[in-house]
Amino acid sequence: MSLDESHQYNRTRPKNYLKKHAIAQSQFGTHVKYDPQLIKPKTINHNYNNNSKLGENYYSDNDKVKLARTVLYQPPTTSGNENLIKFVQNEFSQASWLSECTNRTTTLTLVNYKLKACPVDVFGMVYLQSILLSNNSITNLPRAIGNLVNLKILDLSFNQLVELPAEIGQSTLKETTTFAIGGMLELEKLLVGQNKLTALPSGIGRLVNLSQIELDNNLIEELPEGIKWRCIESFCPTQNRLAAIPAGVCSLKNLIRVDLSKNLLASLPAALSNLVALTYLDCSFNRLVGLPGSICQLSDLRTLLLIDNQIDNLPRNFGNMKSLTELNLFKNNLEDLPTSMKQLKDVEIVDLDYNPMTKIPALIRDEGWGRICEYLASSVLARSKIKLQDHAQTVGEGSLGQNTPKMIELQVKMEERNAKPQN
Length: 423
What we know:
By secondary structure, the chain is α/β, with parallel strands linked by helices. It is 20% helix and 9% strand. It has helices spanning 3-6, 17-21, 61-72, 82-89, 97-101, 362-365, 369-377, 380-395, 397-400, 404-419; strands at residues 23-25, 31-33, 107-109, 130-132, 153-155, 189-191, 212-214, 234-235, 257-259, 280-282, 303-305, 326-328, 349-351. Helix 8 packs antiparallel against helix 10. The termini are far apart.
């Protein structure tokens, strides 16, 4: 019986069935007829660990090619893939390997490959949902990255990027563009920390599905307007050159954590009070000289860090933030504290060191935060008495002698006299 007679198909099958399913072209150019419903694959005997060559037990050359691609395309590591590393550094397009073997790949991981540019074949992989290119030496991205309309995760951290293409967040086709721009509007995670970025694309604020963005350790001087990251919960552009915070950031009502430390901020926007879910705020190592009164409306705020600024006074209603458990005002220019802070008795960690604090006696400060709250709650007369006692301890009993109690009593009487209403 001939090969053609042994593989006769029912006439009920579609006419194009043979074309699609029963003819396969091998790696060597030959054609083989087979019935995909009857064929049984042989046992595959391979050994990845010992770098063994592909065996001869495979039922078709196509499967050999698929297995070879699977072996080559492993998640990259710093060692053990020297051949793949060499292949990557010589650029993928030499054999069109990347576009052939990953035409429906959803995740591409090229971490720590010392790449100086992103392989051009990547931008033809329209099914990609995740690209991890961290720890390389990439300096720029081509505009064609806008073609990756299904991309959800883009990790470019720890590179040498100086700018991001405007196509990120762009949803319209420009006349100067020869390819379709999808704008990557499905992005959920954008990680570009530890680069040399000085600005962000204007369209980046339109990434409404963004839930995580990392901008730390760059040279960014300003943020774009019109930010609509409605899903984001943490915003930490720390260690940049930001001089102001746009109003769009203050409209992100799901924000829980904000870290603006190590920037050039001289003030905070009054609209900060719109962040009703905020529990953590770090504005350390900036140039703040004061705080907006609206910050006192952040009733859920638990941690407030204002280390190494130039703040010389706090808002009068600062004590309204009764959920505070950590308050750090280390190294500022504070001389006094508002009376309302007596309500913050539940604060567990308070640091007021390296502040002048000329109006709060050291005798009180040395006894801890609880004693400071009692002092703020005490009357003016009681404060005066404590100040005199503190002065006596500072100057020394020897210099004041036995007249010290009399001086205290005289000062108290003067305060009482001044406190009486005049007829």
